[in-house]
């Protein structure tokens, strides 16, 4: 490509290991990098405002053309910690659930689990801004990202969606992955993957750069989020996408 590749990344702590290696990396000579929350960058990729983004996999069915271009993702093969249903009452006493406006994948995953795994009779409520304060009584809330790590200190009942998915399917889960809306040069993709790998190979440096008293980031980056896009994760992703077609 003649011009720079426009890339949008998730602005949460979970993406810091992937972005750590971009500073001063060769790939930045041909990259224009911006950050936003997942639902917003999903819209940017669908509308063609960017060429590639770390987008929620739930938007794949809405793309005319898509290429999964990277070896890395925001995935989990156990509790993810930052995508949870938060409540003051146990699961089966919940009556209404606030949905996270910043999410696409987790909202869809929650609906799959509610209908097929937990089999709950609940009402879903869309949100547009801060709603965490409304998680009270039998009103629960789905919260993702850094705000979920904060909500962990507040809500007595926490249902981890990646853990529930594993119980349901015995497969790992992929929340987001690098997807382009057009083919990109092979050399660019190689540089891009290399830049992604640097932080993952230097996690103590990434943690040192992002002081965060709310949650142990070493735990988050090594035991909760699982970054390699493995064959098992692709299988989990295909299973999840098959539910979205139903
Ligand atoms: C694990 C997470 O995965 C995120 C969840 C997303 C979604 O629900 O659409 C999208 C991108 C990921 O950053 C998280 O943000 O906590």
From TrEMBL:
Residues that span the membrane, as ranges: none
Keyword NAD: no
UniProt source species: Chitinophaga horti
Keywords on record: Lyase, Menaquinone biosynthesis
InterPro entries with a match to the protein in the record: Menaquinone_biosynth, MqnA
Catalytic activity: chorismate = 3-[(1-carboxyvinyl)-oxy]benzoate + H2O
Protein family: Belongs to the MqnA/MqnD family. MqnA subfamily.
Function, as annotated: Catalyzes the dehydration of chorismate into 3-[(1-carboxyvinyl)oxy]benzoate, a step in the biosynthesis of menaquinone (MK, vitamin K2).
Top-level taxon of the source organism: Bacteria
EC primary class: lyase
EC number: 4.2.1.151
Official protein name in the record: Chorismate dehydratase
Entries under Pfam families matching the protein: VitK2_biosynth
Gene that produces this protein: mqnA
Pathway assigned in UniProt: Quinol/quinone metabolism; menaquinone biosynthesis
